[in-house]
Specification:
The protein is mainly alpha-helical and 322 residues long. It is built from 13 helices and 3 strands; from the N terminus they run ααααααααααααβββα. The protein has helices spanning 2-19, 33-47, 63-73, 80-86, 90-102, 116-137, 143-153, 156-165, 181-199, 201-211, 221-224, 230-240, 282-298, and strands at residues 247-254, 262-269, 272-279. A hairpin with a 7-residue loop joins strand 1 (247-254) and strand 2. The radius of gyration is 33 Å and the shape is extended.
Length: 322
């Protein structure tokens, strides 16, 4: 009987051992990582601050091949000399001339052209197409709003950001590195001008559509166009449409005389609700309601129809085929 009990105990013990999870500890970071990082940090501090070096300083850099690859990446046909001119800043030519004079060369002859003329041409093309695109996509927005949206797209920050994401930073020949936002913006305009001379106006317009106008994607129009006095603008719009002046009505309120007060105001025109808004006081709620009514009139609500970035353009003009 005792032997049977001992065998049962051993059987239960073996089952418990087989079911018990075994935890194996392992280091996620090797022992050599921390000393290596400390040594690299020590060497970095010893070298001091380092100036960023352009990619063109590497031995295997082939500038002509990079220009050719740039056009192929964008699926555009560029004339290589024109594209090189588009990436050459006037400051770079002046710097190269100064270097040759320092070396004792008397007759300095730099076989390069700067991108000033191409940049002016490209700026005109970009502005022409952007105005046409905004007018087609937002027909109900007044001229003031279209101008504000166009100014956003034509700003130096937006154009330089587009140029940076297209890989123009390393291709740009400038006296300073990294190049400034003005240089990047000017270079993008010059590339548009070079594309127009290489492949025609239609390809230049499509380039602007694909890389500049797409910066409006998922943007709140009222963030780009600041309406300072929406009440007055709403009254003007009602007068133009030969409608009576909008009348505010209090739809609801809560938390009066507290720091959490809220008012719900609606604007009525011909007994029709045209806008509503909330605010911590009645004037703020009326302003919000006026903005809501203007968004409805101009068709620029957050749930507006997305911009069509596949529309075609007519050759030699900035008119868009509807």
């Amino acid at each position: 009987m005792s032997m049977l009990r001992s065998s049962v105990t051993l059987l239960n013990l073996s089952r418990a051992l087989t079911l018990t999870p075994v935890i194996v500890s392992s280091r996620s970071v090797k022992r050599w990582v921390a000393p290596t990082l400390r040594e690299l940090n020590r060497r970095s501090k010893k070298l001091g601050p380092q100036q960023p070096q352009p990619r063109s300083g590497f031995v295997e850099w082939n500038y002509r091949a990079e220009l050719f690859a740039f056009g192929k990446r964008l699926q555009e046909e560029f004339q290589i000399p024109l594209l090189q001119t588009a990436f050459t800043q006037q400051s770079y030519i002046a710097q190269e001339e100064l270097k040759q004079r320092d070396l004792g060369i008397e007759n300095v002859d730099i076989q390069l052209s700067h991108n000033h003329e191409l940049s002016e041409r490209g700026e005109h093309i970009i502005k022409e197409y952007v105005d046409a695109f905004i007018g087609y996509s937002l027909p109900k927005v007044p001229a003031e709003g279209r101008k504000a949206i166009a100014s956003y797209l034509l700003s130096t920050e937006i154009l330089s950001n587009v140029a940076l994401n297209l890989g123009m930073k390393e291709l740009l020949l400038d006296a300073e590195y990294p190049p400034s936002t003005n240089s990047m913006s000017k270079s993008l305009k010059a590339v548009v001008g070079a594309l127009e001379q290489s492949s025609g106006m239609e390809r230049a317009f499509l380039f602007v559509r694909d890389f500049v106008c797409t910066q409006l994607n998922q943007k709140d129009i009222l963030e780009l166009w600041n309406i300072e006095n929406p009440e007055d603008m709403l009254k003007q719009q009602c007068q133009q449409k030969k409608l009576p002046a909008p009348e505010p009505r209090l739809l609801g309120d809560c938390g009066k005389n507290t720091v959490l007060s809220a008012y719900h105001v609606g604007l009525y025109c011909n007994k029709t609700l045209i806008g509503k808004g909330f605010g911590e006081d009645i004037p703020t709620a009326v302003k919000t309601a006026s903005l809501d009514a203007l968004q409805t009139m101009f068709d620029i609500h957050d749930n507006m129809k997305p911009f069509d970035f596949k529309i075609q353009v007519q050759n030699k003009t900035a008119k868009i085929n509807q």
